[in-house]
Amino acid sequence: MTLSVVILSFHSEDSIGATLASAALVSDDIHVVDSGSTDRTVAIVEASGARLHHHPFETYGAQRNWAIENLPLRHEWELHLDADERLTAPLAAAINHLKAHRFSGPAVGYFIPRLTHFLGHPIRHGGMYPIWHMRLFRHGRGHCETRRYDQHFYVNGPSDRIPHPMIDDIRMPLTEWIARHNRWTDAEADELLQGIPRTGVIVPKLTGGTPVQQKRALRAGYNRAPLFLRAFLLFLYRYLFRLGFLDGRPGLIFFVLQTFWFRFLIDAKLYERGSTAEKNGPRS
To answer: What CATH number corresponds to the domain at position 86?
Structure first.
């Protein structure tokens, strides 16, 4: 088959079945790395015939790199998914076409566009589609950044793109979705304040680079803008100028929470921690 699939899971009973079914369209070697699910996730995985592995969760980057370095993958190429992501039929067909030609091109990795489904509706506007992710690469040529949030895979060698999307189907309740974003704001604020070294971080490049390099260049510009104001401007840009309002009420909820509230909360935590450090003064 020339292709193995790696899926990360945690309390994913609502979506893991569709993910496994789509993975089976392209591979006979499917591995699920679970980080302590207590719902029906494990039972669903075992019933599917996929190989189940247990590993404690530290960060997404650490979990992905552990899978790359330790799983007994049978094939030369590997595809990485989250438990709420699934392949569309055109994407599966495109991957099978590459397999049929034994990945004969020069690329050692492929970017795949991700289409988010939120509250049962696709989010196609506001700059949210396509968002490109490196997920398919030759074994030994790809790793994941060691960031705590917004980590990406990177490859050592040339890359290409597959134009057909995978679906990121967000089915968790809003309460859990907001709780996770709250935790991610802590991670982002910590990294921005501490300047934590990031092994494998992609150098920002606005033009002529990979999709992730271009994204990082835009993020670097955003980070130089004034606190709080930048969250408002980003929301207006995505919701009005990039036509996010065309995604209806689900789009309104998504852009208010994911674009404005999330980014505003990061700024609030940066302000809070900066004020605390200023009051405490330098350490002797």
So the answer is: 3.90.550.10
